[in-house]
Design brief:
By secondary structure, chain A is mostly helical. Chain A is built from 14 helices and 2 strands. The C terminus of chain A is likely disordered. Chain B has one domain. The chains are: A mainly alpha, B mainly alpha.
Chain lengths: 324, 141
Amino acid sequence: MMLLLEIREKIKEIYYKNKSYADPLWKFVLALTVFIIINGQMGYSARLSSLPVALGLSFLCAFTGGGVFVFLAAVLVVGQIAGNSILLAAVVGVMFIIMYCMVLRLTPNFSYVVILTPILFVLKIPYVLALILGIVGTPMTILPLACGVLTYYTLLAVQTTANATFGVSMEDALNIYKIVVNNIISNREVLIYIMVLAIALLITYVIRRQAFDHAFEIAIAVGTIITILGFMVANLAFGFTGMGKVIGGTLGSAVLALVVWFFKMGLDYTAVERIQFEDDDYYYYVKAVPKLYVTVPEKNVKRMNDPQDDEDYSQTEDLTEDID
Amino acid sequence: MLNEKKIRIMTRLALSEEKQGKESFEIGKYYRSDYIRYNLLKTMLSVTFGYVLILGMIILYHAEYLITEAVKLDYAAMGKNALMIYLLLLLVYSVITIAISNRKYSRARRFKRKYGNVLGILRKLYAGESGTDPKEEVTKS
């Protein structure tokens, strides 16, 4: 355990020191992975599937916020589908707009969940999101998670429909639309996944908020068991198949959630900051390097003089504490 | 000459401004009621738009049935149902929006107050340096 903690501190230290380069880098890698998986799953448009397009989009995502990433991913999905059928693309596009208007505006910080859920479905570990969101999020994150599950099954239905060939008359267009919608409505897995993941998320959240020791580990463990139990119930009640896949994926997700929690633990989000300001006499270009106490033995310095000084600074500390 | 204490306070101010300040100052421009009303309006517009799209998709799905049965349909009842659901949606979303924006506004105000306190300390430092309060100087001139 000690070794793991040391490794974590090393990684954190490196990350903090190079935050200004590391942040765009991991954003770039994440975006590129997502775009490549989207292209691999639904590469209907040869032009959009080319690597330079994915690289260019990822480059854009590296230097912008999460909203741009979600938007670009959604546009890429719609664009790819348009390469096969304009109508299907319109259906998915409208669905994205509805999701934004009705759901994602309430949880703007978690809109990326809608894109990541289908990706994690492809990687066979959608369960990890319920556990991680239970740890880092609030019960509200059930909404984007449910949207993500719906998005995955919509895209699945679009994929199966797109593989069949249809005519282009108005009647055919209506038929295609009805087939896709029927495909989603008749698929019980959609509801099963939404219900089970929502319950797992909620229980993980409730447990990790408790004040006992190891609340986080217990929350992840219980969340994992609830997920497996939930799918078992679904298996018995609705004939849900693929339990082996679910159990394997859930256990893998639990390990992944533990890793995420391990790195989040004790994370204070302070990093090297470069700021500039001015007063009447000078321009200041300040590089603020936070003191990382974790690996250094703690020192207790009691100042015996200048109480006025301490009081002043205690207020400034207050300000930054509130921000963190 | 460089005043280390002053720089430390200004650094803290600049850091906090960068992290939370932009949004808080933006929110702080409004009165609480105005801010909530503004957000309520945005939510209502987006919910209305989303609902119209959902209705459109439902109508399209049942298009065949609607066209063949166009004469026999009870449009009044359908319209009433649609309207009831819409009003219910608006109500739920309004309550959530009011709760969220109220909390956001309180947080922004708390931040602004603390920021103001630290600014006060900085002002005191200036006063100690030049012998007069810059604020007083401004009012004098």
